[in-house]
Amino acid sequence: MIWQLDLSILSLIVVCAFATIMVKDLLSAAIIFGAYSFLMCLLWTELGAVDVAFTEASVGAGVSTVLFIAAVHQTSRIVKPRKSGRMLSKAVGLVAALLMGLVLVIAEADFPGFASPFSPASLHLSPYYITQTLHDTNVPNIVTSVLADYRGFDTMFETAVIFTAGLAVIAILRRYKRDDSTEIPESYTISEGYPDTIIRFVARQLVPFIQLFALYVVAHGHHSPGGGFQGGVILGASFILLAISFDTRMIIGLMSEKSNILLGNIGVLIYAGIGFLCLLLGANFLDYSILSKVLPATDKIMARSHGMLGIEIGVAIAVMAIVISIYINIISHGKYDKG
Amino acid sequence: MDVVVIILTVSALVFFFATTVGLLRFPDFYSRMHAAGKGDTLSSLIMLMALVFYNFHEFNLANLLVSMKILLIAVFIFMASPTATHAIIDAGYESDIEPWTKKPEEES
User: How many C-beta neighbours within 10 Å does residue A336 have?
Assistant: First the structure.
């Protein structure tokens, strides 16, 4: 904690946030938003929340910037000037925002003081996690054990939310008929996209290493920052890199629509299935310690560790499939045909 | 060892400074990207080398592994950064951005 560094990063974040709203050019706004995410990641690293920073770097600064740019690429780049005469709706919005803020401020008064050492969370919960995690689950990274074991139920539904988001994007954008009457906006083209040898070569050389790193992140989430979400996003990003540098059709050849949806399903299913397996073996839902009955050569503590690894793999598969399918849907107007 | 670390860090900062000055002062898109791409790659590499040496205060296996990982990051930057610069400049060339010239009549 160096407060000068924190302060400068925080002020840069505020500047970036305002710039993102004010800039008329949407492509610039997307890129500034990427910078905002990256500064956020630095700030979280500085505060010691390395897992969150990792997620922000891979999701916020990486994939979501690419998705924004793909969306801008398919629609229009410049914000059209709003017509005046919207004062009433603006006033209603302002009043609603102020009321909501008031409610939040009133509700906040009941909370314990910010970072107070006497709040219930820091009196009972955190010390338990900090002292007992290694003993309970044999996992050195407390964040992973809290996320995947103690609060596994939450994380299962987070995965389900990501899956639902992917389904929603497919439901909105996917078009099956060739001659659809919906008007497609003229896409804003940066370059013609002819085959570039240098970019293709480097992308082809780098992708295996990126995927290897992603698997490492998934599997090593117990001992170091990382886990299913980050690893899945990096895996998806490696496919997006291929799609950008080569051809979207090639990616569809590698990961067809069916296999994408199937993989998303399988990921969520692995997670829920491990939970049901625990239920079948006679313990509570997602209580991995009972898995020692079926896993060879494990005691109850190692079984919890292995159970976490299993659900992390499920999360990674689901996230990867969903990221790829969102990208393909956005970039091809839901038609799965062009690059 | 400390001397090596300090020399590397300071030279990396000098290169970073040169990159920033180039980015702000060069006249057109291509020369700005030239400054950004070259300076960024070199100074990041030097900074990572400084980190590798800094890591060897106590020589043991764990430190060696961390240094290997930093070197791998350096290799990644060495491949990815020039390619990204190339891609951006290529996109600029494709969308017909005129290079800057010294002729006064070009400044219409």
Answer: 19
